[in-house]
């Protein structure tokens, strides 16, 4: 005989208890998880915030430049006869860089020298004329004095005395005119000599020389070109004055000082570090970028240096006042905004901060933290996590 199935009511009752037990088990597990995540504290590494003086790393872009960088030009107009130096040539002060055609100047100088010689002879002629006038003056004076004596004795008539006086005055005027002729001849000689000097100077300017010891970094003209006054012929830089012209935010103006060490990385070789130091700071801030410039000297130049070469400069400076810093690894970001985890009332709380400059493995925090705050390691942190301060980091 077939067994009879249990009553339907009993079967439903057992299934209901099993579902209730499973629900209670899930609730217990959820409650345990919630209790574990939000009740049971976890020991975490931390660091107490204390204001202190920090060695800051002030970073900024820069360009290779030179303090003594000269654009070589001509002061006179002329055709280039030859160029004696080319790009990358090392030149000395006074070394010939280029020559201009100077035949016309040579001819003008020869003519001016001949005119100066003629003017010098003109002085001799004027002096001879004065000597003649002086002799006539002396004769006229003696004759006038003799006739004046005779006139007082009524030996000669007044008309004869008047004639003698007129001759005397005429001789005196001739001598004055001769003196003026000498001065005029001397002035003409000075004018001609000055013209000779001007042409000699122009002829000297037809030879263009280097104004300093350095390296030719560019050449803009070729032989046969017409060189106008002020036109760029070539550029020469003095090697000992090559610098990095770096730009920094104006907030670092009181932090960056002359003499501070600097590290330079060039865009052409970013894996190599060059050393240098701050030479001087500008006294002007760009009105648009709010940046100032600083000249950085290099202890050594790259072999493949070039003017205008890009670089990144990191100046090792001391903070001007006590400041707060945290390890860079403690900084996390939410939606691109930096922040740190703090222990507040036994819970982990993320707070946004404003960052400053890097200081080794630390980074400056300019806003968001205060002295005594406990900054937590960010590994595994979540909002309202119960935490217990564990090992304190230095």
Automatic annotation (TrEMBL):
| GO annotations of cellular component type | efflux pump complex
Q: What keywords does the record list, in alphabetical order?
A: Coiled coil, Membrane, Transmembrane, Transmembrane helix
Q: Which residues form a coiled coil?
A: 109-143, 168-202
Residue stretches making up the CusB-like beta-barrel domain? 244-315
Question: Is this entry keyworded Transmembrane?
Answer: yes
Pfam families, sorted: Beta-barrel_RND_2, HH_MFP_RND
Does Transmembrane helix show up as a keyword for this record?
yes
Q: Which InterPro entries match?
A: Beta-barrel_RND_2 (IPR058792), MdtA-like_HH (IPR058624), RND_pump_MFP (IPR006143)
Molecular function (GO) terms listed? efflux transmembrane transporter activity
Membrane-spanning parts: 20-39
Outline the extent of the Multidrug resistance protein MdtA-like alpha-helical hairpin domain: 125-189
Family statement: Belongs to the membrane fusion protein (MFP) (TC 8.A.1) family.
For this entry, the protein name equals Efflux RND transporter periplasmic adaptor subunit
**Organism the protein comes from:** Xanthobacter dioxanivorans
